[in-house]
């Protein structure tokens, strides 16, 4: 409970039913240990709360339920609504469709509160409060889940090869791990260009990955980030990282790119400092294979790789998940994005040391390539959207308006 962001609270269950009358009877006939507890706690304070899921109850309805509980259970302590020593909760579940909630709850539970999860961290790291964000910045809750899946702990070294604006680094640093990453996009790494925020055209001079960690008092866990191509290994052969957490580009909001093999000999020496090398398409299958090969070589034994796998649901099968002889699959969870599109959170653990002498056989493979057809095309087709932005009408630019005015005057 000290790390979980998916669990709201933990309770000691005293009774459960589908009707209030049955629940009250259960509480009246509860085990002697419950009655002994109530008797021993007569000098302590308590409160009773009614929590609903899928529907909102008015105050008179809540009071009616509390009165039923007090009639069934011999509470002896003092009432304290703000800071009680014991907090008792009735939990009512009305289903997932709050717009068509039934009159009576589907399930009712009653118990003693023990502790809360860490969902406050989601609000603490929320993107709306983040100094630097981009189009593909990972949601705070999902970033924390990925850090938990990776078993990130204090003094670990965590790496993100597609770091973007550093959302995953913030989550890992929040668990006191040292963080680093790379990205092919120089402008994203350095906070240059147009802003993703509403009513802000250009990014502010102080927007950067470092400023994000500084915002949360985590700058001392920031190693640095490098502008590099994930398809080209630049690391000395060694097991450097305790965990690799990343969200590879899908080609939807951000292009899948790698440095082109063609040399650009026309670049002048005085422009090399600002020269951006030519890039080419980097297929999703190749991205994932390279990612697994990298993890197998540079993760410590027992270290974890956590990444998102985008899928077109009608065509998905377990054989679409890449495998590597040095990595074992730990978990595979789905986040549904649309009717036909989702992404799967894949967690793998290094179970075997990588041997350079066996490089030919220790390679990532995919039993069934999910990306033989373009994922981008299938994504836009399933959403009923036009893939090409050229079909979208845009207002004329200032230069176009001036040209029209000149022609009209002539």
Low-pLDDT runs of 5+ residues are 388-410
> What string gives the helices and strands in order?
EHHEHEEEHHEHEHHEEEEHEEEHH
The end-to-end distance, rounded to whole angstroms, is 75 Å
Strand order of the largest sheet: 8-7-6-9-12-14-13
- Helical element count? 11
DSSP strand count = 14
Overall pLDDT score: 88
How would a textbook summarize the main sheet? Answer: 7 strands, mixed
Beta-strand content bin: 15-25%
Structural class: alpha/beta
Shape: elongated
Helix content: 10-25%
What gyration radius follows from the Cα positions, in whole Å? 28 Å
How is this fold's topology laid out?
Elements: E1 9-17, H1 20-28, H2 32-40, E2 45-53, H3 59-72, E3 78-79, E4 86-93, E5 107-116, H4 120-124, H5 140-149, E6 157-160, H6 167-174, E7 178-183, H7 186-189, H8 209-215, E8 222-227, E9 241-246, E10 257-259, E11 279-281, H9 284-298, E12 299-312, E13 327-336, E14 341-350, H10 375-383, H11 398-409
Parallel strand pairs: 2-3, 2-4, 6-7, 6-9, 7-8, 9-12
Antiparallel strand pairs: 1-5, 4-5, 10-11, 12-14, 13-14
Commentary on this structure:
It is a single chain. With 410 residues, this protein is α/β, with parallel strands linked by helices. Strand 13 and strand 14 form a beta hairpin. Helix 1 runs parallel beside helix 3 and helix 5 packs across helix 6. The chain is elongated and about 80 Å long. The termini are far apart.
